[in-house]
Amino acid sequence: MKCCLATVEKISWERIFLILEINVKYSENRYPDIPLVFYAVASDHVKRARFKQEKIDESHYRLTLNITNQGERMCVAQGDYRLIVCQGKCVLAECETDIRLVAQLENLSKNFLYNNRSKVFSVSFYVAEGESTLPFRMYILPAKKIEIAPPENRLFQSSSMNIKKVLNKYRRPFLCAAYRFYRKRYGENKKTILFMSEQSSSLGSNQTAVINRMKKRGLDKEYTILVSTRPASSQPQSKKSWFQLIQKLAKSSMVILDDHAPVLDWLKLDKSTTVVQLWHSGVGFKSSGYSRWGHEGCPGPWSAHRQYKYGIAGSKTMAHIFSEMWGINEEDVLLTGLPRIDEYLDQENREKKIKELYEKYPMCRGKKVILFAPTYRGKNKKNAFYPYELIDFEQLYQVCGDEYVVLFKMHPWVSENVPIDSSYEDKFVDANKYPNINDLFYITDLLITDYSSNIFEYSLMRRPMLFFAFDKIQYSFSRGFFRPYEDSAPGKICYCFSEVIKAIEEKDFEFEKVEQYVEHHFDLIDSNSSDRVIDWIIQGQIPEDIQKGLMAVDEANKAMHNLVIYH
Questions:
Q1: Helix (H) or strand (E) segment spanning residue 200
Q2: pLDDT digit string (tens) for 361-374?
Q3: pTM for the complete prediction?
């Protein structure tokens, strides 16, 4: 029974989030204590997505839908959707379109390109025709590029290219079949854990911290710990390497990652395997994963991220960022803290590393240390670089005076050495080969960076930072930020190198922003993050209140499917 009028008054987008503002006017309201629920209902009368809602006042609601995750770790399915207002199991209304909005609908529609811009996920809005009112409609269509030139005008590829295509076409199905074979052969072993990296030949710091803690607790005797490390995302791998990985995946009941694993974009693991993401970054500025959907290099509707059962974060305020990146629910991001912080906060480790650093870099004794540590430029590891020509080494050398020395620590993907002239070597050091940047933070008095996530750990030193953001506009367009850069940088932002020099001279660092950053990003500042990962995830002892949140999401998804709406 229709007992209210619901009208879509405004449509907007925030990255992958569709935001609708709804005006609800009741003709009667028999159950004022039962909250309203808003569903996207397909033409087959099945609810495909539930909007998150915020009640603005008695008649206005702000609805939000993540089009890459409708609650079940998948994109909203292809279809023609109505927006239905329910109260419990009662259908109250189908949403209309405000007449002032009708002319804007086409411009408010959005296309998200992916798969090297060869495919698109299209979200469009329109008003249903042939009706006496203005029924709101949303149409979703995943599509791909088609050949528009006549066949006779197509350019033929070389035979070598065709061979490569054939090999690539059949390699993945063959490896998927091998995984299923080995899975049946080995069976499910609930005590085998694979720590895996497809980005590097070594494990990430969060993974290493968890393994070390497991060994310290004697859990390596209870669990079989496997390790697979390959730079497969940037370098071709041998047949032997592929089969070794497939066998380890088949043997494991749990796979623990620290970064994107491209192999899991196409290899779907057995549903009994738990995949955990111990993301290597504490979250800096730049968006990643589904938060940059539609940009070059973004994932497709199905990707490795969909297989994560859990991720981790350091604070509640950051959990929604990770869930957006991975296309999973916010409840699946557990607030364990980051394991690598455990050692970083250990006083004994700190004293040991400071002693080692002064022995390695004796010029730092008795001086204030500036650490120049920006992120890379370029699309990926293969073409990563940093524009050294933007650094005025002479000005930087002069501003150091007798007070400062400078350590340069570039992103690991930047292979080119820092061009330090011999005349500057008494104050400048290329520290690129030093393995762990966190250790360098112990002796750093001023960090100069840009969009790097290294600010996460460094902020716990509660020391000043400068941000050399010469390409903020370009970087924002290509990578995107989770929130405005000026609002989230915990220090002074400089847009040219002369501003960096001036800030050092005047000691103008806007230091008050550091404490605000720490309060926002850290709920837990202790040395127990590895233990929480082990206890909660590996041993399955998730606290009861968190389990209730996970169960509530499952129940909401079941309820969405159990009620078919004929209206």
A1: none
A2: 999 999 999 999 99
A3: 0.86
Cβ atoms of 491 and 467 closer than 8 Å: yes
Token code pair at residue 132 = 């006496």
Identify the three-state secondary structure at position 224: strand
Measure the CA–CA gap between 109 and 347, rounded to whole angstroms: 54
- The number of CA neighbours under 13 Å toward the Cβ of 186 is 20
Contact 338, 529 (CB under 8 A): yes
Amino acid at 533: V
Spatial CA neighbour of 406 closest among 357, 358, 360, 369: 369
Confidence grade of residue 151 (pLDDT, cut at 50, 70, 90):
low
Amino acid (one-letter) located at 18: L
Q: Which residue has the tokens 């990296």?
A: 197
Q: Is 349:329 a contact under the CB 8 Å cutoff? A: no
Q: What values do phi and psi take at 522, rounded to 5?
A: -130, 115
Contacts of 461 (CB under 8 A, 6+ apart): 441, 442, 444
| pLDDT (tens digit per residue) in 205-242 | 899 999 999 999 999 999 999 999 999 988 899 999 99
Task: Please give the Cα distance from 97 to 105 (Å, whole number).
Answer: 10
* Nearby residues of 559 by Cβ (< 8 Å), 6 or more positions away: none
Dist. CA 374–CA 454, nearest whole Å? 9
The set of residues, in sequence order, having a beta carbon less than 8 Å from that of 259 and lying 6+ positions away, is 197, 198, 199, 200, 204, 279, 280
Helix (H, G, I), strand (E, B) or coil at 334: strand
- H/E segment holding residue 525: none
Give 184-193 pLDDT, tens digit per residue: 998 777 899 9
Q: Which residue's entry shows tokens 């915020």?
A: 54
Mean per-residue pLDDT of the chain: 89
Q: Please give the Cα distance from 138 to 305 (Å, whole number).
A: 26
- Residue 41 CB contacts under 8 Å (≥ 6 apart), including other chains: 47, 48, 81, 82, 83, 84, 565, 567
